[in-house]
Amino acid sequence: STNAATMVELLSSLAAQGITIILSIQQPRSDIFALMERVLVLSSNGEMVYSGPTVELVSFLSSLPYVPSVPQQMNVADFMLDLVIKREMEVVSSIARDFETQFPMSTMLESVSRQSPGANGWGEINVKHTAAFTTQLQSLSVRFLRNMYRHPFLVFLNLVCTLGFSILVGVSYWKVESDTSGIQNRMGCLFFILLYLALMSLSSIPIWRDQHVLFLRESAAQAYGSSAYFISVILFDILPMRVFPPCFFGFFTYWMVGLHRDCRFCLTYFLMILIVANIASALLSMAIGAASPSNRVANYVGSLTILVLSLFGSFLMNKGNLPSACQWIAAVSFLQYGYEALVVNEFHQSKTLFTLKVPIESLPPLSVNGDGVLKQFGFNVGAKSYDLLMLMMLALAHGLLGYIFLSLSGRHILDRMLNKLYSLKPRWMYQRSIGMPTYETLSPGDDQLYEENVDQEHNSPSPVRSHRTQSYTESIDGDPGGDLTSPLTTTIDPDNVQFQMGTPEGYCLTWHMVSKCVMVGPAVNRKPTQILYNVSGIAGFSNRTSDVAASSSAGLFVVLGPSGAGKTTLL
User: Fold this and answer.
1) How far apart are the C-alpha atoms of 200 and 208, rounded to whole Å?
2) 3-state secondary structure of 534
3) Helices (H), strands (E): how many in the chain?
4) Confidence (pLDDT) at 421
5) Cα atoms found within 13 Å of the Cα of residue 241, Cβ hemisphere only
C-alpha cells in the first residue's frame, strides 16, 4: 500500500499539470481514494454502478433508502467494494438503475458542455509526436539490455549447455579415423551439431508471447513501431543466444574430432555456416511463435517443423533419392543447406585419403580423396558458397515472415484459420444468444478467447472521444452497438471544441455506453459472456474550470470494482 500511495502521489502531481490519468486500483486506502477526482464503480458483471465525482459518492449512497449508511471510520472505497461484492445482484442492479435515473450520463455531458469557456482559438492536436526510429531503437535496446542483465539465467544456461555439449561431442567422436566408419562418424557429427542448434533455437518461440500485451499497448499508444521493436528483440536474441554458442564447436569439437585441418579458412567457414544456420533456425522459430495463438501450439508446430526439415536434411535420406513430391521441402530446409555446406567444407580439397572398405574379403579396400567421398554420397563439390548464400536467404525470409506476423499481432493467423473452420453458425443465432445487435470478441491467446466481429456492417462512430481543452463543448451521442475495436485516438472537431486562452490545456476523455461481450471457451463450444454493459464516464474534467493546476485531484480518474469486473477490458 505504501508503494501504491507513492505511485498515486506521483500521478497526482502529473494530473495537477493538466494531464488526464485513468487508472485501476485494488482496494485503495482512504488517503489514496481522496486524491481521485472521479470514480467509476463496476459490479461483478461489468455493469456501471456509479460514475462521477468522488466527493459525491457518499451523498449518492445516502439517497438510497435500501443501502446502509457509510460508517464514519470506514473507507468509502472498501464500503463500495463490499456493497457490489456481498450484496445480492438485484440490489446492485437497483443501485445502477437509480444512478442512471438520478444522474443520466447524457445530461452530465450536456452540463459539461455548457461550462465551456468562449472560443478564442484552436490548436493543432490530432498529430501525435512520434520519436525517431533511432530513438525508439535505442530506448528498446536499453530496456532489453537491462532485462538481460536482471535475468541472465537463460543466456547463461544456453552458453553452459552448449559448452558442455561441444565437449561431449568431441569426446564421443574423438580423433575419427579415415576409413568407412570414420566417414560416417564425420557426417554424423556434423548433422548432430546442426540438429542440436536447431532444437535449442526453439527457445525463441515464446519470445513474442512473453511481452505480447505490453507490445500491443505500447505500439497502439505509438510509443514505438513494430520495426524498432522487432529489430531490438532480434538484436538481443541473436547475439547472445545464436552467435556466441556455436563458437564452442569451433573451439573444442572441431579439434577434438579432428575435422578438416588442411585448409586455412575451413574453420572460419565452419563457424560461419553454424552461425547462419542457427540464426535461420531461430528466426523460423520466432516466425512460428508470432503466428501462433499460444505457446503450446507454437511449441508443437515448431517441433514438428524441425522434425520434418531434419528428415529432408540429406543425412537421414540420400539427397539423390528424394521423391519428386518432397523435393520442395528440401529446397526450403535450412538443415539441408547447412549440412551440405558443412560436409563439402569437411571433405573438399582434403589431403587425407579415405579408405572405403567393402564387406567382401576378396575385394581390396578402395582409397579415395575427399572429393570422391562427396561424389559417392551425392553431394555437389562446389556447392559450399551456394549453400551459404541460400542459408542467408532463408534467414532473411524467416525474419521477414516473423516481422509480418508480428505486425499482425492480435490477429493470429493459426487462430483465425481454426476459428473459420468452426464459424459455421448463422449470424442470427449469435445475435439471439446475446440479445444485443452486435458484439466483438477478444483473442488473448492462452485463455482460448476467439476473435470474431459478428456485425461488421455496423459503422456507427466510436463512443470514445478525446478533447484538448480544459473543459469541452462536444456532447457524445454514444451507441452501444458502436465499433469499439478502434484505439483511443484523438478525434476532434475544431468547430465544436473551444477553450479559453490563458488557462492550462489538458485532455478531457469521455465514453458513453461502452459494452463488450466475448465468446469464452473452445471454438467448438463457445458461449457468450458479458464483460461490460453500458459503461460511461468523463475523465480529465475538473470542477475548478478556472484553474486546473489548483486542484490536486484534477485529471485523476479511478476505475474501481471486484476482480473480473472488466476494469482492464475498459482500459
Assistant:
1) 17
2) strand
3) 22, 9
4) 55
5) 26
